[in-house]
């Protein structure tokens, strides 16, 4: 399904002009700081179905992640 969605979106894709993010470190971990206007206005349309997760140990299998979100 994701592959089909990417294919459909690629047909109508227009490049997004973004301000280069500031690469820095926070609490000794790598971090990127994005322009708030870029994130809230330009990227929200493309990222509306994006899920970002943080795993403290190993990454669980994708099937287990999907089961948690399908109600």
From TrEMBL:
This is Uncharacterized protein. It comes from Solanum commersonii. The lineage of its organism: Eukaryota, Viridiplantae, Streptophyta, Embryophyta, Tracheophyta.
């Amino acid at each position: 399904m994701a592959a089909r969605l990417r294919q459909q979106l690629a047909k109508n894709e227009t490049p997004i002009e973004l301000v280069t993010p500031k690469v820095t470190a926070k609490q000794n971990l790598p971090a990127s700081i994005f322009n708030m206007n870029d994130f809230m206005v330009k990227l929200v349309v493309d990222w509306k179905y994006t899920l970002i997760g943080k795993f403290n140990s190993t990454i669980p299998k994708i099937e287990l992640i999907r089961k948690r979100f399908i109600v």
